[in-house]
């Protein structure tokens, strides 16, 4: 992992939070002049970092803003490649669209596109995804696994596991997974995942995993109140540090992804099942061709949902909106 | 099918080839002035159409050039949507790349990109594809079937059938198919197919089918002589009309594709098997992970090759280069 001077400086300040580090020591460790250190500190202040500077004692980090610029995410990020290249934009049409363009231009595996706001955020099946400024995390991750296209749904499930584990690690909050791509807390949606790929008919070229997370949203419109929640709401109103949350998710993702490439989907599947709220229950699946109600038996090795109807016939559900029956 | 005036004029001349049509009749049928007719005829002459114009008798088409501009292909094209929108460029990096861009911008199903020359033509697995000017057909077709990604290989096989049937119809020449994506004559390659898709993990957004065809190539470099041939070489040196060949392929493709969307892959599979040269033989499949030699038993409903090795174990081959053993 190659760090910029800004990232290294921020990492030093964070590691020594609440204590002073001398400008001399910083300039030696970073290999730049004291004037350069002073300039970088000024830039950090402009971004909302509170840094106290005292003659003779040095610099002390008092508080961090809730930013998700590359150096906010990358300082202290403990991964080999996931999130080590971050493309940040204040406003994008959609992070998926930009990530797809970068992937076609050859962007490296692990590259992440993050934005504060999406104008045309996309959900599954071409639906829109509300992505207001400031409170959420709207991002897309580029990976290039050497797998056939039919295995791509496995990556959606792997991502869901990484997010549940990352949220737990960063905030202590427990979430559950609703097949195929929603993360819920107490039945309300907190994260949506959109997996798209570019592929030859027998080989994936790139997979773009989009994640939309309601992090510090304080309230939802009436139409969404029963369906959506945010980490802040579930955290007794306390704000969540978005950069730390992303670090935790990237780190969990990388561990699971390396495991997946080495040993296949089996272990990921077991973890996924342990978080799944939709298995072992009576559910209704609305597909493009109709509606099936039945018992959710499990998922296949490809991530396909197995639904047993009342006549005992098992259906393989590739794509659907599912609803968990209240009686189950 | 909406035709331009140029396309309609060309269709009239082609239908009445070797006989005269009066300028008056043309102008009435096309609903434009006789001066406009004269201008369109002049443009066609510039493109290489030989048209005789006699006072009192009218215009007579003597010969057509071997062009593949939109009006060359679209006049007399009997399809509902395949090839009804054609984007022609003299030179492109690759027709796949341009078609992908158009697909992302919302291009309609059936849109075709054709070029006289590709600078960076692509084959399967990121290989290069030689696409010199003039003698071949380099094109990409955009379709939007509502299928899950794992069914995409079926479209490669469907395309192979359409090409074999189209070549037979336009030239009388019989070809055979080598799994997964080559069309051969007497064991030598004449067409390559590259199927790429953009997809959500459970739903195809667009499939781009690239076809590279050696049509009027007169000779190949020594390194390719044993591997490649052209329709001209196999047609006793007689030149093939490329626009007519494309029309035949588009028409066959549309028939098969509508059949596929309505009744599934079964019928296509039967046709494919009847043209397949690689089934029922001992073949060696080189995959990314190794080499397997065995008996090619058939293909699955998803287009996956079934290979039985010498120990009786059946392997599902998703992606490979195959070689047919000389002893089989």
Most extensive chain interface and residues per partner: A-B, 29 and 29 residues
Instruction: Report mean pLDDT of chain A, rounded to a whole number.
Output: 90
CATH class of the largest domain in chain A, please?
Alpha Beta
Radius of gyration of chain A: 22 Å
The strand order across the widest sheet of chain A is: 3-4-5-9-8-7-6
| Poorly predicted runs of 5 or more residues of chain A | none
- Residue fraction in strands of chain A: 25-35%
CATH topology of the largest domain in chain A: the name is BirA Bifunctional Protein, domain 2
Instruction: Return the string of H and E elements of chain A.
Output: HHHEEHEHEEHEEEEHHHHEEEEE
Shape of chain A: elongated
DNA-binding region (chains A, B): 23-42
Binding site for biotin (chains A, B): 118, 122-124, 189
Protein name (chains A, B): Bifunctional ligase/repressor BirA
Family (chains A, B): Belongs to the biotin--protein ligase family.
């Amino acid at each position: 992992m190659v760090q910029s001077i800004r990232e290294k400086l921020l990492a030093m300040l964070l590691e020594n939070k609440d204590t002073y580090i001398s400008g001399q020591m910083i300039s030696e460790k970073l290999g730049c002049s004291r004037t350069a250190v002073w300039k970088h500190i000024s830039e950090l202040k402009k971004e909302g970092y509170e840094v106290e500077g005292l003659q003779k004692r040095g610099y002390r980090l008092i508080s961090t803003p809730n930013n998700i610029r590359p150096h906010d995410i990358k300082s202290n990020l403990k991964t080999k490649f996931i999130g080590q290249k971050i493309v940040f934009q204040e406003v994008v049409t959609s992070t998926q669209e930009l990530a797809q363009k970068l992937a076609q231009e050859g962007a490296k595996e692990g590259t992440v596109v993050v934005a504060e706001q999406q104008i045309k955020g996309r959900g599954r099946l071409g639906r829109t995804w509300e992505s207001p400024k400031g409170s959420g995390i709207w991002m897309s991750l580029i990976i290039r696994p050497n797998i056939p296209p039919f295995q791509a749904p496995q990556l959606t499930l792997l991502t869901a596991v990484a997010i549940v584990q990352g949220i737990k690690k960063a905030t202590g909050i427990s979430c559950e997974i609703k097949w195929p791509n929603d993360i819920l807390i107490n039945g309300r949606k907190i994260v949506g995942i959109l997996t798209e790929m570019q592929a030859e008919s027998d080989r994936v070229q790139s997979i773009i995993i989009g994640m939309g997370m309601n992090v510090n949203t304080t309230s939802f419109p009436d139409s969404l109140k029963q369906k959506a929640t945010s980490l802040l709401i579930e955290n007794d109103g306390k704000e969540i540090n978005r950069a730390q949350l992303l670090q935790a998710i990237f780190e969990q993702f990388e561990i699971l992804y390396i495991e997946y490439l080495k040993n296949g989907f089996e272990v990921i599947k077991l973890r996924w099942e342990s978080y799944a709220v939709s298995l072992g229950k009576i559910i209704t699946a609305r597909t493009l061709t109709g509606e099936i109600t039945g018992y959710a038996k499990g998922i296949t090795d490809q991530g396909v949902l197995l639904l047993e109807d009342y006549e005992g016939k098992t259906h393989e559900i590739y794509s659907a909106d599912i609803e968990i029956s209240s009686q189950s």
